[in-house]
Model the fold of this input.
Amino acid sequence: MEYDNGDVSPWIEFFAFDSRFHPKMVQLRQQHRLDEKTEDCRTDLERTLVLKKWVAKALKFGTPAEDVFDDWSAVALLDRAKKGQVVWCGQAAMVFQQACWALGMPARYIECGRPENPACHFTTEVFLREFDKWAVIDSTPLDDFNLYYTVGDVPQDALEMHRHVVDGTMDRVVEVHPDRSHPVKTKKSPAWSFYYVRWLTRCDVVANTPEFYDLEHTFDKRWHTVDWIDNKTIPWEESPHAAWFIRKKRLTAWRISDPEVVRWKPTDRVRILLCPGPEERIFGHLWTGDGEFDHYQIRLDGAAWEDVPKKNTRVWTGKMYGWGLKRFSIIAETGTHSVHARVVRRDVSTGPMSHVKFSIE
Done:
């Protein structure tokens, strides 16, 4: 009868992010005065460009020591930079992504490559609310790489950049640098590094720093990335090229050709799915895109709010039949019913309500 649950993609839960309340994220925001740096900004793009400029100035590009992979937190990397340590593109992306996330702007890591090198660059996408889309924002402290890309003044995401590479439409793309803007000029431009694109699903690198083995395994590429594939992209294991630091093998377990997997939109709403179940029950399944999600609350037929258990339960009788983690059930009684749902965040604040109204005859 009524259904209002926002635009929550089920794919969003395949991606993990650090909490803005992690001690190192709080330290990053406070110690480096990120709020002050961005206080005059009016849009997400303006905020990202201020942060990008700060990151590029704070870091120096070069070949880092292997212990740079011991701690992926921005505060640790910035401390190293103060001591004269250098970074690659990956470390710049980590500082920038965490700075964005600390201020509440969803950002994630992407790895991209050329036909001859499937993993030649590591950068970030940021969700820009004023454009209602993701956009590649590169903070690498090199003049040619410190940029973002536009077509008709609209920032481009990683998948759009891939399609410009394989569809031959790169002449439409403009490189936007801090001091200049111009069309993509040469094949040396990082714009051409999106032949291969993979998104990291584990962006929670502060709380769960990947274990470093070697350059091929700086993180778990096989299980913690999503690799784009289409009929214009030759899989790396079938490519005629070879690279010294990575084997000719399938790089990821998860390959996709559906844009919806990576073009989900961050949201603090709750998706409610109702379906008939056994024992004369209606089962409810819940999804959210809130990055600070702790647990759900539901309100049935206007009653008081109730916490959904934070772990799976083994209750097979009574009111709590089948409740647990991200699901609940209600008795299928004749009449009109309503279900309201919301998230409770790590800081105990609650998100906006979603609701479903339905009848059983």
DSSP finds six helices and 20 strands in the chain. The chain has two domains: 32-261, 270-360.
